[in-house]
């Protein structure tokens, strides 16, 4: 929901003169655009920012999790992944490069431009997925997974950075959720798509292995998306060509809470390192570590739990993997709307975490498969919804547009460590209940609720002190308030 301007004045200047030079846009003390102009601009932004971002992020989720579908489609036998910890190793190496290269990627993306940089990354990781369809050993699979993590590392933090560069504080939650949940639709239907691909048989050699076609077809789709993505991906505000000068001015000026709408200036390496010293980043990172760990553990082991833990057939396990994600998408978007509309963050995040805990307990203890399957709906919603919710939480507490990219990259980098945790806590020797993994996930969700509540109470107190004049400008920006 766009914030109403404090007042409106009409400036009678030529369009070109109104927007100054490239170095600085000199903004008057009062906003000089109407609510109607801003509403029309935001609507235009929505249609340009999200479509391609959602498509390529959906492909990225599909490409990093399709290994679980391939595993139960015959890859585990062909590559002997059941020996020792081979499968867990193939899962966790993805997150090494994913964690290391996220922050550097967000420092590069605004310099090179989103279209060029993201287009390269998408094409490169598509080639890695395609290559996995031709491997003959678990070592080669592991190498491809490691490269996949490096190239995928820039997309998610880059997408969140782009959204944070275009939208206001209480516009971010539902839009980050839209970005994440619309793309999750592809991941939700991934098991059904993977099942269809696994039925492909060609010739008498290795191409009769259906699991290979999961990687080959999905890899080709990603490579094609990467090649065409520069045409459709949106750029940062200072680079766009599809806004007229006044729209571009409003887009940049409306985000500047200090009423000094300056053109984006790239932070130096020293400035970026100084941004990392903000202690609140530790809290945001703990939150995201927990949600990432929970999400990845469910994504990687849901097909195995449905097959081995609940006793469903291979085909049914693939098909039943989709409905919980469809429910998660609808419920998460509804809760994100509540978060933005009523300007509340922590009650929504804690509520979703509690729902996740209840769902995990229902999966764990009741005996009837139908009841346990219902628990999967709750667990997927509770854990998945807090991914975009937590990212929006971090972005909402950040006043400096330049710092938003650092915050997103750091959170998601630490989330990669959560991915390592999520890919290893469900051990094959713990089947079929996976008791240690389930209780580890439940414990982390309890910690998430406690950390989120404590941090939000602190931020509310800082806002109150600033309102009473007992606290200097929050985040160094006069008039800025946190969004707990």
TrEMBL record:
Q: How the protein sits in the membrane?
A: Multi-pass membrane protein
Where are the stretches annotated Disordered?
1-33
* Cited Pfam families: MFS_1
Feature: compositional bias, Basic and acidic residues: 10-23
Read off the SUPFAM superfamilies from this record: MFS general substrate transporter
TM region(s), chain numbering: 49-73, 85-104, 116-135, 147-167, 179-200, 212-234, 281-301, 313-334, 346-365, 371-393, 405-426, 438-459
Keywords tagged on the record: Membrane, Transmembrane, Transmembrane helix, Transport
Q: Name one GO molecular function term.
A: transmembrane transporter activity
Major facilitator superfamily (MFS) profile domain: from which residue to which, for each copy?
A: 49-464
- On the tree of life, the source organism's domain of life is Eukaryota
Instruction: Tell whether Calcium is among the UniProt keywords.
Output: no
Q: Name where it's found.
A: Membrane
Q: Which GO terms describe its cellular component?
A: membrane
* PANTHER family per UniProt: MAJOR FACILITATOR SUPERFAMILY (MFS) PROFILE DOMAIN-CONTAINING PROTEIN-RELATED, PERMEASE-RELATED
This chain's protein is named Major facilitator superfamily (MFS) profile domain-containing protein
Native organism taxonomy:
Eukaryota, Fungi, Dikarya, Ascomycota, Pezizomycotina
């Amino acid at each position: 929901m766009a914030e109403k301007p404090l007042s409106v004045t009409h400036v009678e200047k030529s369009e070109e003169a109104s927007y100054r030079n490239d170095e600085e846009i000199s903004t008057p003390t009062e906003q000089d655009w109407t609510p109607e102009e801003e509403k029309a601009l935001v609507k235009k932004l929505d249609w340009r920012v999200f479509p391609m971002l959602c498509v390529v992020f959906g492909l990225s989720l599909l490409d990093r999790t399709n290994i679980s579908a391939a595993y139960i489609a015959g890859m585990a036998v062909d590559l002997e992944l059941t020996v020792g910890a081979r499968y867990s190793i193939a899962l966790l190496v993805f997150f090494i490069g994913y964690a290391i290269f996220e922050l550097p990627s967000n420092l590069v993306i605004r310099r090179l431009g989103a279209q060029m940089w993201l287009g390269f990354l998408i094409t490169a990781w598509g080639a890695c997925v395609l290559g996995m369809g031709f491997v003959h050993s678990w070592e080669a699979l592991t190498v491809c997974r490691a490269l996949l993590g490096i190239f995928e590392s820039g997309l998610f933090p880059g997408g969140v950075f782009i959204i944070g560069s275009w939208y206001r504080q209480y516009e971010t939650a539902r839009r980050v959720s839209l970005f994440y949940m619309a793309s999750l639709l592809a991941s939700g239907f991934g098991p059904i798509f993977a099942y269809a691909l696994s039925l492909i048989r060609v010739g008498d050699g290795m191409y009769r292995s259906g699991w290979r076609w999961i990687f080959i077809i999905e890899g080709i789709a990603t490579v094609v998306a990467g090649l065409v993505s520069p045409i459709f991906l949106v750029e940062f505000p200072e680079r766009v060509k599809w806004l007229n000068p006044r729209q571009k001015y409003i887009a940049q000026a409306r985000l500047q809470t200090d009423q000094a709408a300056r053109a984006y200036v790239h932070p130096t390496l020293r400035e970026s390192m100084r941004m990392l010293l903000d202690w609140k980043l530790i809290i945001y990172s703990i939150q995201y570590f927990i949600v990432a760990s929970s999400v990845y553990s469910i994504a990687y082991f849901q097909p195995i739990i449905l097959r081995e833990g609940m006793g469903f057939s291979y085909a049914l396990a693939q098909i039943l993997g989709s409905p919980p994600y469809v429910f998660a998408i609808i419920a998460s978007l509804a809760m994100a709307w509540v978060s933005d509309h009523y300007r509340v963050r922590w009650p929504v995040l804690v509520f979703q975490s509690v729902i996740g805990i209840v769902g995990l307990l229902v999966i764990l203890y009741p005996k009837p498969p139908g009841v346990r399957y219902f628990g999967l709906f709750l667990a997927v919603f509770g854990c998945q919804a807090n991914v975009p919710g937590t990212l929006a939480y971090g972005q909402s507490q950040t006043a400096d547009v330049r710092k938003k990219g650092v915050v997103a990259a750091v959170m998601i980098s630490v989330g990669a460590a959560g991915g390592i945790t999520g890919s290893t806590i469900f051990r094959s020797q713990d089947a079929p209940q996976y008791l240690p993994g389930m209780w580890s996930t439940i414990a982390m969700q309890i910690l998430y609720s406690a950390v989120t509540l404590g941090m939000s109470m602190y931020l509310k107190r800082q806002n109150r002190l600033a309102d009473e004049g007992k606290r200097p400008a929050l985040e160094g920006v006069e008039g800025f308030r946190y969004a707990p």
